[in-house]
Amino acid sequence: MRAISQDALGGPEVLKTIEMDRPTPGPTEVLVRVHAAGVNPADWKTRASGGQLGTPPFVLGWDVSGVVEQVGLGTTIYRPGDEVFGMLRFPYGHGAYAEYVSAPARHFAPKPANLDHNQAAAIPLAALTAWQALVDTAGLTAGQRVLVHAAAGGVGHFAVQIAKARGAHVIGTASAAKHDLLRDLGADELVDYRDQDFAEVVRDVDVVIETMGGDYGPRSLRTLREGGTIVSLALSLLDEGLHARAAERGIRSAAMLVEPDHAAMRALAALAKAGKLRAELAAVLPLADAAKAHELGESGRTTGKIVLSVRP
């Protein structure tokens, strides 16, 4: 099968097309013929630094949409021909930049019929991150006020939609050029971070989804009410000093990484089927153009998600 691999750490130019053996599904696994693979910031950060994967060679990618080709021993929930989408176990279950992947069956959910594979592949990692931050970690309920940083980004634009679907009042930070899109996705209030300090204009927030790192965590504490929650998704996770400052004000602070979640994938599929969750696609490129996809993502000028079309 074709795959995109790398033999060294570095810039997008290290990515190359190779031929490798097709995987074989083990017990309770499925072999999926990949139609599209989502691209996430974790991809280009791992390409450059090795991240949790260490030394190359490796095949990047965690987001998959495709068709079940073969099922392993004991797998009962899917059959060959089923359309599925899901996230390979982050960070070690990588390998989506390929024509086939093998993974536990319950890392996938049935693909909603109203989504094509490109749209479906854009959802798993980013939307699961948003779901697990808002629903599982923060316990978001209807009527609460949520502040989403980088609201037009991959995780952010899903967080806006999930929070809105759960009845929250959604506040987002984004450049003014992206405000119309975010209003269309359900944002109630928007702050142009280029012209305003969100910490000066946002108050009485119940939940903050912090995606930026740096000083966004400390500044976000000023927006939270007592009893609120800040969830950090940045790779520079909340430091102990910030945990202590939050605790002094009666604010819960948590730092999380996304994990496979069959029930949450099904919940996201239900939202997408109902028209309450959609992926904003910044670009769809062929698998062979993975380097171009990384260049585009690293430019910092995209809105939503980038997808690699493996089987157009």
Account of the protein in words:
There is one protein chain. The protein has 312 residues and is of the alpha/beta class. 28% of the residues lie in helices and 28% in strands. The protein contains 10 helices and 16 strands. The strands form 3 sheets. Strands 3, 5, 6, 7, 8, 15 and 16 form a 7-stranded mixed beta sheet that branches. The chain has a 6-stranded parallel beta sheet with strand order 11-10-9-12-13-14, with helices on both faces. It has a 3-stranded antiparallel beta sheet with strand order 2-1-4, with no helix packed on it. Helix 7 links the parallel strand 12 and strand 13 (224-232). It is globular and about 55 Å long. It starts with a strand and ends with a strand. The mean pLDDT is 95.
Give me a quick take on this structure.
With 312 residues, the protein is an alpha/beta fold. Helices cover 28% and strands 28% of the residues.
List the helices and strands and how they pair.
Blueprint lengths: L1 E5 L9 E4 L9 E11 L1 H9 L8 E2 L3 E9 L11 E5 L12 E5 L3 E3 L6 H5 L2 H14 L7 E4 L5 H12 L3 E5 L5 H7 L3 E3 L6 H4 L3 E6 L5 H6 L2 E9 L7 H9 L3 E4 L6 H12 L7 E6 L3 H9 L6 E5 L3
Parallel strand pairs: 9-10, 9-12, 10-11, 12-13, 13-14, 15-16
Antiparallel strand pairs: 1-2, 1-4, 3-5, 3-7, 3-16, 5-6, 6-8
Helix pairs in contact: 3-4
